[in-house]
Amino acid sequence: QVxxxxxxxxxxxxxxxLRLSCTASGSTSTNYCMAWFRQAPGKGREAVAALxxxxxxxxxxxxxxxxxxxxxxxxxxxxxxxxxxxxPEDTGMYYCAAGFRGGNWFNASGxxxxxxxxxxxxxx
Length: 124
Prior knowledge:
Elements: E1 2-7, E2 10-13, E3 18-26, E4 33-39, E5 45-52, E6 58-60, E7 68-73, E8 78-83, E9 92-100, E10 111-114, E11 118-123
């Protein structure tokens, strides 16, 4: 089991930036894919980005392409989500996911471990 802790959320104005961090502990050797999801009030959990071991392969939701960048620091067992040009529609709770069991990267059911989330609020 992997334990995940997110940080870096906050409140910013539209056009601003935030960098989220997710630090993993436990069975991190199985983390060949980690992802970020978000959930706005009253909506389902939406995939934002995923990164495969080595950071060579990355996926992004169309809504964040060109604005968000996912990266990793293997020495720290940490992944990051750099969010630029933030929009009010980016508001939500952001979750880190690991323990990928296969399938499409954007399916939340494919991940066995989740953090508790960090809140991002973007005002217009």
